[in-house]
Amino acid sequence: MARRKSRTAKDRDLAFYSEMSINNGSAVKEGPKKKTFHLHDLKDVRPMNETQRQFFLSYIEGNHVIGNGSAGTGKSFISLYLALNDVLDNEKEQDKIIIVRSAVPSREIGHLPGDMKEKMAVYEEPYKDIIGNLMRRASAYDDMKDAGKIEFMPTSFVRGLTWDNCVVVIDEAQNMTLPEIHSVITRVGKNTKVVICGDIGQNDLVVRKSDVSGFLEVLKIAARMPEFDIINFTEHDIVRSAFVKSWIIAKQSV
């Protein structure tokens, strides 16, 4: 696990995040492929509500973090933002982001055209958008993959690996069975941080009766571990848009 910062260092980091302004500029698609990346390339972001602030603080303090709850609350976005802050900082031990996601519709993935790499590319699209937004460059995700700063890993291929000096972002965890999540968690090596994002309300494990989401069980396990902080997001924390917030609140009342 990454070394703990002093209280002064943690306070300085939190103050840094709190003072940041939000820049909603879109990714810039221009210029040749970038081969090196720096903190000044990263867009300024700050917590937009108290729940996000708690997420930031838990991560800064060196804990593994689980973001649990409603869609549209920015869980994946802030997870990747915080991960980029570590990976782009030469003084930090982490030098790569590993994004892990279960390809739930893989029951039909054989019907998609192309090889396995091309078939899996559809699951990377959300991260291309997020990284492009955060790095203010549309090609940033692909450029950072080529440079070895980002790796996308479906759960099917994690066994036998060890991840040292990484930030592992496990996204859409509600779509993973407990054995899948266990396989991912047990890959974690030295100086590696883990961030898990999930929302049981978006569970796609509905094709096979034998497939049961392991996310609720993971929350129970993590609650017994001092290394984990669980941050619970509700519909009141939705930041994607006022419309999405209204929709989800109305849906819950049906």
Helical fraction equals: 25-40%
| pLDDT averaged over residues | 85
List the secondary-structure elements in sequence, H or E.
HHEHEHHEEHEHEH
Which architecture per CATH? 3-Layer(aba) Sandwich
- Structural class determined from secondary elements: alpha/beta
Keywords:
254 residues, alpha/beta, Rossmann fold, six-stranded parallel β-sheet, 6 strands, globular
Structure description:
- Helix content is 36%, strand content 13%.
- It is built from 8 helices and 6 strands.
- The chain has a 6-stranded parallel β-sheet, with helices on both faces.
- It is globular and about 50 Å long.
Question: In brief, what are we looking at here?
Answer:
With 254 residues, this protein is of the alpha/beta class. It is 36% helix and 13% strand. The protein has helices spanning 7-19, 50-60, 75-87, 116-135, 140-146, 178-185, 215-223, 242-252, and strands at residues 64-69, 96-101, 150-154, 166-170, 193-198, 228-233.
Write the SSE topology.
Elements: H1 7-19, H2 50-60, E1 64-69, H3 75-87, E2 96-101, H4 116-135, H5 140-146, E3 150-154, E4 166-170, H6 178-185, E5 193-198, H7 215-223, E6 228-233, H8 242-252
Parallel strand pairs: 1-5, 1-6, 2-3, 2-4, 4-5
